[in-house]
């Protein structure tokens, strides 16, 4: 019985055990499935977060559908000449047999050649008829500058050439004196060859003893004529001449910080380089009429001899850009960096730019540099033209090459010097870079300057407005950062680099900034130079000089009929007897004096630093709901007192 009972009990219990096992397995499967689902969800969340983080990292390449840098099919009035247009203009000019033009590879001072080609901006009336009234677009034309050295009496010749892109006419001929031409490659090559040969053969020993270098066969101790200064005919009292001072310097980085006390005045009036001749020399503070006079003075000891060793050209040389001294920060941490989490908030089509209610056209004049046209804010034109017209620098010194260093930089083509902007140094990493095409004397092909402009949005770190109220029950804060769009270009003009920024604020203000950097142009120091600057190194003085930037600002505030009004803040003594127990009480405060300037002569600004004024421009027919003209103020920070 017992055995049977045990046997029966054992057999009867197997189905229950099986069911319990299945139940446990089901629970395990459900739990495992739940864990897998949770892991999948977690993985998806992590992947999503990583994607979001990666998409917001600096250096990401967002969609560039709004950035189209190629020229549009229909070129707007302000668009610079394209490479195709430049090529067609050159071929047309070469086909004009009356001009006797030679190709760029064959140019000499005494033949006829193309010096410059650039866009001729149409007349404003024609452009506005097209932009505002839907009339036909003005014909695209180019300004072509020729040097007619082939003529018995050489001259500069200017033509208007069109219509583009297939020109068939040249018109509006204008002629200018040949001596007014800027320095050109053929004549500079000619004068350098002549100076090097003639001076090495005659006073090479003096240059070697004085400065430790040579003009020819010099290996790593070369002397070069670097700086040039045109002698003003008003200063020399020699009209109709073309004379230039050339200063000597060691051929190392960077020449303008290693001036020497040797210069020559060369008469370059002739169109034949073989006829160039030395008119005067400057050595050790003295003037000499000829090479022979300097030789005699040096041999007989009647001149103070200069003894300057040739600089040791290594990484520790003060004029190089090699890192020297103590580095900072001591730990190599990267600086802050801006980025655009959602890509550019501005758009570019060719050279037409739009941003936060702003729109304008941009170009690069080969001669004069950056130029902006048709600047609108919220659909209303504010400025028709905002353009750089000239950079001028005036030096003061005792030595002649620096005394007469009065430069107008358009003579060596400001726009042609704008190129090679570097991300992370010249412009933020997230900038958009634009190129510029030019036509120069030395090439029949258009020359492309890559990265001539950079465009970027920037957080200035300055609130454009803010307010915090914490008193009483109405506690609130509101604020907005001043985030701007900047158009930047940096032309290099010999030793100087000029940073030009056109800044568009979201409150409708336009800001233009000019900053000079690069290297100073120094002089050889002697006691006679001490009134004109400070001593920087043993033989170097930094001369006083004056930079001037000339901008054209053609404002059309709510239309073309604008008024110019000055507002002066003056002291005012007012009667205060109503608020005082004193019988003749006065109160001192300020008041506005508004004056409309009705003539060109009256509108000339003679800036008085003791009585500053507000310069306002407005259309008297366009007013606010309160009857006040909607005006723009011209605020000038860069005035200098003479």
UniProtKB/TrEMBL annotation:
Q: Which residues form the Copper amine oxidase N2-terminal domain?
A: 86-169
Instruction: Identify the cofactor(s).
Output: Cu cation
UniProt cofactor note? Contains 1 topaquinone per subunit.
- Which principal EC class is assigned to this enzyme? oxidoreductase
A single Gene Ontology MF term assigned here is: copper ion binding
PANTHER family according to UniProt: AMINE OXIDASE, COPPER AMINE OXIDASE
The protein depicted here goes by the name Amine oxidase
Q: Which organism is it from?
A: Dreissena polymorpha (Zebra mussel)
**What lineage, starting at the top, does this entry show?**
Eukaryota, Metazoa, Spiralia, Lophotrochozoa, Mollusca
